[in-house]
Write a structure and sequence with these properties.
By secondary structure, the protein is mostly helical. The chain has one domain. It starts with a helix and ends with a helix. The protein binds protoporphyrin IX containing FE (HEM). Protoporphyrin IX containing FE binds next to helix 1, helix 2, helix 3, helix 4 and helix 5.
């Protein structure tokens, strides 16, 4: 019962973050027009919008991580015998844990970088950031792990809702790839196409 409640709270925080991610990706696509990007972020960075969004995201991340750790602890205690290894392609548990720690680190570093940006020259700041190959690789790695995490967790949500068909899974993959592909397009464009 308590575990079910925890799972719901975690899923709710996940949904809040996913909605933000769709909004953030779509607004980042405005980068392909410097005027549109600057106009959007000028409004976004005025007043309390940016700080309210940031606060909401920090609270959602904190809840999501805290509840995830709690659920893991409860599951580990309840399971005295390990699952049978019937799936040949299952990713080892320690790699899953490492990838989630990396994703968390990626988000924290990205937020710190975004706070250090000079908001009066955001277009130039983002351009300069992705002219560096290590930064491009770091973001692509973060987006790859985000793709795996979202596709896995959204498939779990669908399963809880009883939607297990191939069509639903295909839709989840298409949505996740559109999201992370949209994000990746900006650093890739800056690094490979911009002069
Ligand atoms: C690679 C593509 C990405 C680009 C180009 C990008 C760009 C930006 C920029 C320019 C800001 C500062 C906005 C401002 O000054 O108001 C920002 C903030 C932020 N980004 Fe990203 N971002 C990317 C990917 C991501 C991803 C994948 C996540 C989460 C998993 C994320 C989460 C955030 C958060 C939480 C903030 C702070 C809140 C806000 O200012 O909206 N970003 N990002």
């Amino acid at each position: 019962m308590v575990l079910q409640l925890h799972k719901r709270v975690m899923a709710l925080a996940g949904v809040v973050m996913t909605v933000y991610l769709v909004f953030h990706m779509l607004s980042n696509l405005s980068f392909f027009s410097e005027a549109a990007f600057t106009r959007f972020y000028d409004v976004y960075n005025t007043g309390l919008i940016r700080w309210s969004v940031l606060l909401l995201m920090l609270v959602a991340i904190a809840i999501h991580v805290k509840v995830a750790i709690k659920i893991r602890k409860v599951n580990a205690k309840a399971r005295t015998i390990d699952y049978a290894k019937h799936d040949k392609f299952k990713i080892p548990a320690f790699l899953v844990t490492l990838s989630i720690i990396f994703l968390f680190g990626f988000i924290v570093i990205h937020i710190i970088q975004s706070l250090l940006f000079d908001t009066s020259a955001l277009y130039e700041e983002v351009t300069a950031q992705f002219q560096s190959a290590p930064m491009l690789l770091f973001y692509l790695a973060g987006l790859l792990v985000l793709t795996m995490h979202l596709s896995h967790s959204l498939a779990n949500v669908l399963q809880t809702l009883g939607k297990t068909s191939v069509i639903y899974h295909g839709l989840v993959w298409a949505g996740v790839l559109a999201l992370t592909g949209g994000f990746a397009s900006v650093p890739l464009y800056i690094y490979f196409v911009m002069p």
